Amino acid sequence: MSKARVPWKAVIGGSIGNMVEWYDWFVYSSFAVYFAASFFPEGNDTAKLLNTAAIFAVGFFMRPLGGWLLGRYADRKGRKAALTLTVTLMSASALLIAVAPTYEAVGYFGALVLVVARLLQGLSVGGEYAASATYLTEATPRGRRGFASSFQYVSMTAGQLVGLGLQIILQNTMSTEALNSYGWRIPFIVGAAAAAVVFYLRRNLLETEAYDEEERESDKGRGTIKALLGHKKEALLVIALTMGGTVAYYTYTTYLTKYLSNSAGLPKETATLVSFCALFIFMCLQPLAGGLSDRIGRRPLLITFGIGSMLGTVPLMTALGGVQGFGGALVLSLIGLIIVTGYTSINAVVKAELFPTNVRALGVALPYAIANALFGGTAEYVALWFKDSGIESGFFWYVSGCAAVSLIVYLTMRETRDVALSRTEQATREALPTRV
């Protein structure tokens, strides 16, 4: 295995913006229990959450368009340019939510503002994932790519932790009435301001060697759908391998707090604290698993996730629904997140390693965004629909079924750990003896 050093400046630069992107993305879901009543008329709590969850899902359906536009932009204009643009869009969307008027003031116009903001977020995140995944993978030498690219989910989780941490602070310093009235706007203001800082930081990133090499060769076909169609098998592979992972990820992260509160009956504060502690440990596991994949390959981790999620979701979620205290909820949540780590720690690098440089960002962005729109973005809505229909356990089987489909892909796909990402890397490998 290569002993090359990790380029920490590139890893940190690519990750910190990703953290703000996903802070803004997830904070909508974590604060929905407080602002749902501000944008919809009186009704039962589950119905209000269904409305806000539907708007959450709308953002996911914008992600394929964002994946296409910004993936193409990243392949034609560079990874750095795409990373800067995505964080700008995210800042604007967070600001829109922060100033959105309530139902009491303007009727459903406030909900319309939420929809517009989520559309912008979906556009941004649709390109952010691929730009970040591609940048982190290309900026790191072979033998360290799994470790370095795992920081994408470190940063994603860190963004969610910041949001949850801010929620805990607000819950302990503000009354419930104040949070429902205006306190929920604070995290969106913080997100908009943080994105402005990251915009400056990302402007100082260096472009990757792989992209510079491709740009010097030719711009013909870079980032086009026609070029992507030349890799149809890989694109379909990304959709299939993402299916089970994205449903499981959103089940044990964004939906978990609501599930512990609405179904298990834990206080909102306890449910939030469980999520915070579990996600912190989950975040720390990502580099360990990513580094392990550099040694043993990507497929063993993906297969472990597929089996664990397929067989473990139903008993885990059933047990979580009956949990009565912080300790039990934390242990069960951690088991689920440890299983999910087999997917999250390496899914970015696996997808980037499937495509050549001229279409790598688009190849990661578009099929991944499609899979997230169909499965990840609807996970929370599907879960609440099952609950509202009185058959909540049906959602657990749905998650297991998605994992089973992805498991078939993991068992049959090729190993990607040792692929060369550029012609220069390939030439170097051919000139030097293999290092183990």
Automatic annotation (TrEMBL):
Signal peptide: none annotated. It is a multi-pass membrane protein. Residues 10-418 form the Major facilitator superfamily (MFS) profile domain. Pfam families: MFS_1. Keywords: Cell membrane, Membrane, Symport, Transmembrane, Transmembrane helix, Transport. Belongs to the major facilitator superfamily. Metabolite:H+ Symporter (MHS) family (TC 2.A.1.6) family. This is MFS transporter.
